[in-house]
Amino acid sequence: MNKKLHYIIAMLAGMLLLDEGTTQPAAYPPANAAATAETKNLYAALQRLYANGKVLLGHQDDLAYGVGWSYEPGRSDVKEVTGSFPAVYGWELGNLELDSSRNLDKVPFDFMRKAIRQGYDAGAVITLSWHANNPLTGKSAWDPVSGSVSSVLPGGAKHELFLVWLDRVAAFIGSLRGPRNELIPVLFRPWHELTGSWFWWGQNLCSPQEFKQLWKLTYDRLQIHHKLNNILWAYNTAEFNSNNHFFERYPGNNMADLVSFDTYMYQTKEGDGNARFTERVSRSLNMLRQMADSLHKIPAFAETGYEAIPQADWFTRVLGPILTRYPVSYVLLWRNAGLMPESGKMHFYAPYRGHASAPDFKQFAAKTPLMNGKALKKEKIYHNILQ
Ligand code: BMA
Question: Is residue 5, in this structure, part of any structural domain at all?
Answer without folding.
Answer: no
